[in-house]
Amino acid sequence: MVQKYQSPVRVYKYPFELVMAAYEKRFPTCPEIPVFLGSEILQESKSDDGAVHIVERSCKLNVDAPRLLKKIAGVEYVFFIQKNTVNWKERTLLIEAHNETFSNRVVVLETCSYSVHPENEEWTCFEQSASLDIKSFFGFESTVEKIAMKQYTANIKRGKEVIEHYLKELISQGITFIPRWTPPPSPHPNCNQNVSHGLLGMLSSPSWTKASCCFLPSPADKLDADYIERYLGQLTPMQESCLIRLRQWLQEMHKGKIPKDEHILRFLRARDFNIDKAREMLCQSLTWRKQYQVDYILQTWRPPALLEEYYTGGWHYQDKDGRPLYILLLGQMDTKGLVKALGEESLLRHVLSINEEGQKRCEENTNLFGRPITSWTCLVDLEGLNMRHLWRPGVKALLRIIEVVEDNYPETLGRLLIVRAPRVFPVLWTLVSPFINENTRQKFLIYSGNNYQGPGGLVDYLDKDVIPDFLGGECVCNVPEGGLVPKSLYQTDEEPENSDHIRLWTETIYHSANVLKGAPHEIVVEILEGESVITWDFDILKGDVVFCLFHSKRAPETSRKEATSSSASTAGDNVQLIDKSWVLGVDYSRMESPLVCREGESIQGSHVTRWPGFYVLQWKMHSSLPCSGTSLPRVDDVLASLQVSSHKCKLMYYFEVLASKDFRNYDLMLAAHSKQTRLSLACGSSFDSIQCAINCSLNCLPTHYIQPQRAYHALPP
After folding, report:
1. Integer Cα distance of 282 and 687 in angstroms
2. Whole-number Å distance between alpha carbons of 691 and 302
3. Residues facing residue 379 across a β-bridge
4. Which residues neighbour 318 within 8 Å (Cβ) at sequence distance 6 or greater?
5. Alpha-carbon distance 312 to 480, whole Å?
6. What angle do CA 617, 618, 623 make, to 5 degrees?
7. Whose CB among 457, 483, 563, 681 lies 3.0–4.6 Å from 571's, allowing a Cys bridge?
């Protein structure tokens, strides 16, 4: 497996020329980097005007590997070829390196660049990327990979420290400014290179001034190292790399909007920074958020009066670490009464709104306290907990809510303080704990009786002036006291819920459908006037499908898949409209070219109708074309065929018909007769694609979970 690394943008607070002077001090040897034993120039060249200077070196490195491994490999040191191309005119340095030792067994590639900060030419940006591919190494591939990654990550931070060390050394010598390159006054192809245009000439210049020490954020669409430390916390080099790579992937797939950085980071932490697993989990969550319009919950959800009166929870200042504090009097809550009076749906919506509010408060506290606050603390008081709380439907509802929160709000709980746990608590804990992630369980602190008082108790985590009065503190807490919900408020006419899944947002505008082999899913749109606009937005949740749009003057008749005993459970919502006896070009016409849609992709598009009649949107299972005698199937098709279900595809779709007069303001759509856009997600469907301009009825982008790709991450003054 190829290991990759991508650094954030690191900003040096000095001009490019001064940074280059510090960089050159690393050669030919650098005592500040012990593994770097020395270098030798292989070849060197300059442009006629001295603006471009290319140096190729052979670098000797010491590898901290077991003696036995070195003996088996037959080498004591490893050699790398490094090519540096500095352009004094453009003020850039490109560093390209690859290994010379064991190049047939191990491939190491590294690219670094220094460039002028885009917003201030007196500062310098640095970026670094690398890849490691161990093809074979005497059976020690895994060991060599671990050693290489360990040493590389250890030297990443050291490299920045070395540059800063030599910058300070230059300043201590009185060198705080180096003039920029200027073209020679009388260039001649045969004249000697003017040394003053090179680094040595610049060092000899008598013009010195003090270097600048201000900070501006990183180049567009990139994360700055200082921004990460300020708003996201201390990350290891590999953790930074995982965040940047996953963020870049989302930028490519979402084409203009991505989840917030702290949101991406939570999913990486939940999967121990395994990019593939984090991406899969994140994509599934983004699909869930889109389908159920969770981004709007703080604007649209208004808890019923009954819930505000009997739901015993609320926000209460923050803990000692600055985390928002939520207090839940679970022992005083009539969970059975709430479920019977409001239903599971309302409780879940309320819990989701609490989680959304929690993330909003974390952002506010991050700005308030000047340090990253990415999670909150929950204080649960179990005084009054009894067997009534073990009501099976209530426990079932609790487990469903926990499952939804675990899947979509990972790493948002910083600490859970459980106080006054009664004897019945172990029973509830036994039922609930298997559904809680191990990382989350480690954040639980449980106190029985009065153990929460005194040292080692709440005072270790909460300031005394924040501890609620009912727990012996001095702070008045405004959390509702709860009580039994009157049975007169129970929803007696509601049928018992038999579904195994929470029917969150049953009024969702999206529909789900299955596409079976030989049985496409089709929907019909009747157009009464010639110029209307059909818009669609769909996500491929499973399998690969082909999307087409047809037109017919005849009204198709609905038919469903004849489900055999083996496929009866999978047929689901599968509707066929185009009769098998119909002839393409005679009974109906194709209005859009077939579009192959891969699993995980989100498609938005529109079609301006020319004639009235019946338009059929069709999704059918995609199967790769067999290779001809002169061509082979593409690798992507082969891989897709291996990964995708061979008997069923699943999609989630939405469509709308608009009058052309209502659509004219959308120049993007009227500029072309038909348009398709892809937002590809490899593991799940797209995030918030419904917010595209084509859906004029839903033209407001969410503001809490979605942010535009920032050009810069500026620190507050």
Report:
1. 10
2. 23
3. 327, 417
4. 324, 325, 365, 377, 466
5. 5
6. 155
7. 563
Q: Which residue has the higher pLDDT, 701 or 461?
A: 461
Per DSSP, 436 falls in state: S
Q: Are 669 and 663 in contact (CB under 8 A)?
A: yes
For 554-685, where are the alpha helices, taking DSSP H only? Answer: 568-571, 635-643, 660-663, 667-670
For 599, the token pair is: 């699993």
With 0.85 as the threshold, say if the pTM is over it.
no
Give ∠ CA 149-154-159 in degrees, rounded to 5. Answer: 120
444-448 and 511-516 strand pairing: unpaired
Residue with tokens 């491994």, as numbered in its chain: 69
Q: Quick check: 79 and 60 in contact, CB under 8 A?
A: yes
Give the H or E element holding residue 295. none
Q: Locate tokens 């999704």: which residue?
A: 619
The continuous run of DSSP H or E covering 74 comes out as none
User: Environment class of residue 385 by beta-carbon count within 10 Å: exposed (0-12), middle (13-18) or buried (19+)?
Assistant: buried
Residues 6+ apart with CB under 8 A from 322: 365, 368, 369, 371, 373
CA 57/CA 557 separation, integer angstroms: 74
Nearest CA to 22 out of 104, 126, 117 is that of 126
Judge contact between 366 and 231, C-beta under 8 A: yes
Q: What is the pLDDT of residues 73-127, one digit of tens each?
A: 778 888 999 999 999 999 999 999 999 988 888 899 999 999 999 889 999 999 9
Please report which helix (H) or strand (E) contains residue 67, including its range. Answer: helix 67-73
The residue among 339, 333, 355 whose CA lies nearest residue 480 is 333
Instruction: Look at residues 388, 261, 377 and name the one whose alpha carbon lies nearest to residue 335.
Output: 388
The CA distance from 164 to 679, in Å, is: 42
Largest CA-CA distance found in the chain, in angstroms, rounded: 101
Q: How far apart are CA 401 and CA 364, in angstroms?
A: 26
Task: Dump pLDDT digits (tens) for 134-163.
Answer: 888 888 888 888 878 877 877 787 787 899
CA–CA separation, 26 vs 28, rounded Å? 6
Nearest Cα to Cα of residue 400 among 445, 373, 431 = 431
